[in-house]
Specification:
This protein is an alpha/beta fold. The chain folds into 3 domains: 126 residues, Fumarate Reductase Iron-sulfur Protein, Chain B, domain 2, CATH 1.10.1060; 166 residues, FAD/NAD(P)-binding domain, CATH 3.50.50; 136 residues, 3-Layer(bba) Sandwich (FAD/NAD(P)-binding domain). It contains 17 helices and 14 strands. The strands form 3 sheets. Strands 3-2-1-4-14 form a 5-stranded parallel sheet, sandwiched between helices. The chain has a 5-stranded parallel sheet with strand order 5-13-6-7-8. Strands 9, 10, 11 and 12 form a 4-stranded antiparallel sheet that branches.
């Protein structure tokens, strides 16, 4: 068994990876985790971060960067970290990336840069995600400064939506000297990361800290403002030089199989909200205490639903997914965390019907085994049910986590001129500009389906597109 040496910084040699095993960040004990909704992993200490970074061989043509949609300077960050130059490394991260919180906490690195790392062929990849998380925390606790914003351009940009996409766009634009106003119907900025999801991936305090720093930079937040009711595109276009649509997803994809109407079959997202948000609900929360809970789907919402069901006292929490584990859209870290906490998984199976009793209550899920096919346009593996392979799984509660439909624009004539594609998304060009000049869109309103990393990349592209559009106007 290879062990990490106890030096403060990693000895940067070409073959350090042969001497040092990959070390995962420490995790909180499961009983502790099951009593709250907070993050599971803790950051590395300085010695471990440095040693792990020293495993990088500094490839001349790094696969990790090629696989990163955000073009993060990964080898440079790792070299500085390996040499113990944590301040410089954190500064590089803060200076080259909008909202490093999202990169450090939300990126699915095991499917992106780490999957592409050249070391996967001979050993295990450099833990790039955990090192980014270390640098983020180091930067905040040691007062690493972000670069000051550019000189004010005198131009104003309205951003509709304060979630991942809106905050990314606002951060990039405010750094470039634009006066940014964010509009959102929610009371608190941060989208689902603050107003909905549990803090398993990122504690809400981390997002709130970023919102506060955006406020200090001059970004204005107009919360509780409903787009389409309180404000329209036309009004925003008149009062701002550009508009960015960054609306998030709200409508869940329904379950459309026999028995979907039975009592005990519910959408997973409202179930999550009942446990994690301060919002008031008309309906009572679904009681899962001591019950057999089945979750349908394989994304992060499904993982959150499993883990919250276990925290709410479910007897069992079992996930049914049509593909195999590698094809699940959820972050592999979240799948692992759910399994550690007691969630069970049935792979390569899909529900054919929900079973019920004479009282109209759910009693089980009839499934069929699936056969894997070619991936679809979005890279998701195609599957088809195999006849004659049906089997039943007992269930008292079924939580549906099939994702969300693209957000719909409110029916007001201001937005009628925006071209909408067949999938319901706004049509955008390479700079994320819609069919209306000066109106841009990114995130799930412009791409569907969309991953979080694509949201971040498109928000950054939109900010660059807005900058080019407004720079050209300044020269006229
Ligand atoms: Fe380092 Fe891996 Fe990137 Fe190569 S691919 S530069 S070893 S992190």
């Amino acid at each position: 068994m290879k062990t990490a040496t106890a030096t403060k910084t990693g000895a940067r040699t070409k073959y350090a990876w042969r001497e040092l095993d990959r070390v995962e960040p420490p995790k909180r004990p499961v009983p502790d985790r099951l009593s709250d909704f907070h993050e599971v992993s803790r950051p590395y200490d300085e010695a471990t971060a440095s040693q792990q970074a020293s495993r990088c061989v500094q490839c001349p043509h790094p696969n990790c960067v090629a696989a990163c949609p955000l073009e993060i300077p990964i080898p440079d960050l790792l070299a500085l970290t390996a040499d113990g130059q944590f301040h410089d490394a954190a500064e590089l991260l803060f200076n080259t990336q909008s909202l490093p919180e999202f990169i450090a906490h939300i990126c699915v690195e095991k499917r992106m840069c780490e999957a592409a790392c050249v070391l996967t062929k001979a050993s295990e990849p450099v833990p790039i995600g955990a090192i980014s998380r270390f640098l983020l925390d180091y930067g905040w606790t040691h007062g690493v400064k972000e670069p000051p914003p550019a000189t004010a351009t005198g131009q104003r940009v309205a951003v509709i939506g304060s979630g991942l996409c809106g905050l990314m766009g606002a951060d990039a634009l405010s750094r470039q000297g634009y006066a940014v106003t964010i509009i959102d119907s929610a009371k608190a900025p941060g989208g689902r990361l603050v107003n909905g999801l549990a803090g398993f991936k990122v504690d809400r305090a981390v997002i709130k800290r970023r919102v506060q720093s955006l406020r200090e930079r001059g970004v204005e937040f107009r919360m509780g403002v409903v787009f389409g009711r309180d404000v329209t595109t036309g009004a925003l276009r008149r009062s701002h030089d550009a508009v960015l649509f960054a609306l998030g997803r709200t409508e869940a994809v329904p379950l459309e199989i026999p028995g979907a109407e039975l009592r005990g079959v519910c959408q997973a997202y409202p179930f999550i909200l009942h446990h994690t948000s301060d919002a008031r609900f008309h309906a009572l929360p679904v009681n899962v205490e001591g019950r057999q809970v089945v979750v349908l789907g394989g994304g992060d919402t499904a993982m959150d639903a499993l883990r919250i069901a276990l925290r709410a006292g479910a007897g069992d929490a079992l996930c049914i997914y049509r593909g195999d584990e590698a094809a699940m859209p959820a972050d592999p870290k979240e799948i692992e965390n759910a399994a550690e906490e007691g969630a069970q998984f049935v792979f390569r199976s899909q529900p054919a019907a929900i079973l019920g009793n004479a009282n109209g209550e759910v009693t089980g899920v009839r499934c069929a085994r699936t056969q894997l096919g070619a991936p679809d346009a979005a890279g998701r593996q195609g599957v088809r049910a195999q006849p004659g392979t049906e089997f039943d799984i007992p269930a008292e509660v079924v939580l549906v986590a099939y994702g969300f439909a693209p957000p719909r624009l409110p029916p007001c004539d201001d937005v009628a001129g925006l071209a909408v594609g067949q999938n319901g998304c706004l049509v955008v060009d390479a700079a994320q500009m819609t069919s209306v000049p000066g109106v841009f869109a990114a995130g799930s309103i412009a791409r569907w389906p969309v991953s979080m990393i694509e949201v971040m990349r498109d928000a950054r592209k939109a900010a660059a597109g807005i900058d080019r559009y407004l720079s050209a106007l300044r020269k006229v």
